[in-house]
Structures are given as C-alpha cells and as structure tokens.
C-alpha cells in the first residue's frame, strides 16, 4: 500500500475512536502539524465545548486529570490565532490559568499529573510544558521539564521511569516505559520549536535532554527498528509507538537544527517499521493501548503519532529538497 493511502486510512481510523482528554489533544495536534487545519479546528472546538469551569479542556470522561487536559492547549491557542474567535481565546486563557495558578503541584512547583494523588508521570512532559511554551511562558515550560527530569530520570540507564509518588517519596511505577520516554522526546521537541533564540541556556539544556533520552532508547532498539514496551525488559511485548514517537522527534529535531543529520537513517528505519504495523483498516497494531495501556492493542495516541511522524518527515524532506535546489 502506498504511504499516502496508509496515512489516509490511519487518519480515518482515528476519527472513529473514543478519546480521553490527552488523546483529543494529541490527535488534534497531529492534524494541525500535518496541515489539516479544518479538522484540527473542529477538534479544538470540541475541546472547548467540554471545558470545565476550572479551565481544564476536553474533560468528557473523567474528573481527575491535571496535565492531560493541557494537551489540548496549543491547538485551542492556534484556533484563537487563526479564527480570532473569543471562544477559543477564552478557552486557551482558562487552560493557561489552571496550569499557572490552580493545578496541584509539589513544594518546588512541579505540576502533578492528576488531582489529589501527588504523583509525577513522565507523560506530563508532553501534556503541559509545550502549551506553556506556546503561550509564551518559555522559562516556566523549561522549569517544568527540568522538574520531571529531576524526579524521573534514571542517570544510569539514561531513561525515564514512569511515576514518582511525591507523598511517599518513592516510585509508584519505577519501570522504563517506552511510550513514556517517547512522550519526553516529543514534548521537548515541541518546546524547542517555541523557545526564543536568546534563551541560549534553556535551548542548550533541552537539546541535551532530547539527545540523552533518544540515545538512551536507541541503546535498546531491536533489529527490526522497534522496542519492547518496557524498553530494557526483553520479556515485555514489542511496542509500535515508541518508534513512531522517536522518529517524529528526530525528524523535527534535525529540521530544527537540534540534532545532527546522522540520526536520520535510524528515523527512516523506525518509520519503515511503523508501516509494517498498520493493518487493513488503518489501525496501528501492537502498541501499548486501550483499555488499560498494559498490553498490545490500539489507541488514538498511537494513530496520532503515526500522523505526527509523517508530518515531521514531510517537513524534513521539504527542507532538504529546498536546500538541495539552492
């Protein structure tokens, strides 16, 4: 099947899937980065329609997420910029105010993943800091990333652990979850795209954090280009999504000048491996997926990262072709 046909099937499939708050955001972000603005704006509208009074976006199915809802923040902000509609402006501002002033956080100001449980999840690196950066709170975005890194990064493995319980002072889930490390790489790339050049210290720090997590994951990559669900545990199932997430991050980072060109062959390898996991219905099989995200299945976020990977590849290829013609 041609890559354009595959992408079309993946896009159609994700639109049929029920979505949690973060999934609404990452799917909308995928359509936005691909340039499918009409769909992205419709998804932003739905996120605002389901916004809580406290500012959290897309809160249709559960009440506890703190950072997950912020995955919708950037697309609502972009919708405000594109359309000028007050509904989007107010929605983005309410989400921002929640993160800055109301979200539960530790004594050092790092936002917990959920309300009332005192846990840091590695997922949060993608959910909240990129929106803070897009909204102009660049230093706060970096500070949040550095906080999550401080609590969750394993300096020996060069990988992030999944969950830290700040109340008990111990890991709630001390495993090196593949998709969690993918959230870090993808989240950092989104922040890098927003940082002003004059923030040289922050830029250099994020570039180093990006490279270390990518290198940490790649040291456990399988011959087929994929990874195990728990990156350093070959007894766990083979996951589809981390390869997509890292491929996305590498294409974006090389295009942005934050990683050298030498990373591109491995991004191509992971992209090719992802193609092999798409079934006849356009569903990416074999990733950590619904309903409990602890077994191979499908999920909207997996579909979204296939789209994001393709969007990043097209942008990389477009820049490379442009440079070759000048």
TrEMBL record:
Listed Pfam families: Glyco_hydro_88 (PF07470)
EC number: 3.2.1.172
Primary enzyme class: hydrolase
A biological-process GO annotation: carbohydrate metabolic process
InterPro entries assigned to the protein according to its UniProt record, in alphabetical order: 6-hairpin_glycosidase_sf, 6hp_glycosidase-like_sf, Glyco_hydro_88
GO MF annotations, alphabetized: unsaturated rhamnogalacturonyl hydrolase activity
Record key words, sorted: Glycosidase, Hydrolase
Protein name: Unsaturated rhamnogalacturonyl hydrolase YesR
Organism of provenance: Ruminiclostridium hungatei (Clostridium hungatei)
Gene behind this protein: yesR
């Amino acid at each position: 099947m041609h890559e354009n046909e595959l992408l079309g099937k993946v896009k159609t499939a994700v639109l049929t899937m029920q979505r949690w708050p973060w999934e609404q955001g990452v799917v909308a972000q995928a359509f936005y980065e691909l340039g499918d603005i009409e769909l992205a704006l419709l998804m932003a509208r739905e996120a605002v329609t389901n916004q809580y009074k406290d500012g959290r976006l897309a809160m249709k199915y559960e009440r506890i997420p703190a950072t997950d809802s912020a995955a919708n923040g950037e697309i609502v902000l972009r919708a405000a910029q594109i359309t000028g509609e007050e509904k989007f402006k107010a929605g983005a501002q309410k989400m921002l105010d929640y993160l800055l002033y109301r979200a539960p956080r530790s004594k050092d100001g790092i936002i917990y993943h959920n309300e009332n449980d005192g846990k840091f999840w590695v997922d949060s690196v993608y959910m909240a800091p990129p929106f803070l950066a897009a909204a102009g709170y660049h230093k706060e975005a970096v500070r949040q990333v550095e906080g999550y890194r401080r609590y969750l990064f394993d300096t020996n493995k060069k990988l992030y652990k999944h969950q830290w319980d700040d109340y008990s002072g111990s890991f709630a889930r001390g495993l090196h979850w593949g998709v969690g490390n993918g959230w870090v790489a993808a989240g950092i790339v989104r922040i890098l795209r927003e940082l002003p050049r004059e923030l040289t210290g922050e830029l250099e720090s994020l570039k180093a954090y990006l490279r270390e997590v990518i290198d940490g994951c790649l040291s456990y990559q399988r011959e087929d280009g994929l990874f195990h669900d728990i990156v350093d545990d070959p007894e766990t199932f083979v996951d589809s999504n981390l390869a997509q997430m890292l491929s996305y991050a590498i294409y974006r980072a090389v295009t942005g000048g934050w990683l050298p060109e030498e990373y591109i062959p491995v991004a191509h390898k992971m992209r090719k491996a992802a193609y092999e996991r798409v079934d006849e219905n356009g569903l990416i099989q074999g990733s950590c997926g619904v309903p409990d995200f602890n077994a191979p299945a499908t999920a909207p976020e997996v579909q979204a990262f296939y789209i994001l990977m393709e969007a990043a590849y097209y942008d990389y290829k477009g820049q490379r072709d442009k440079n070759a013609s000048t």
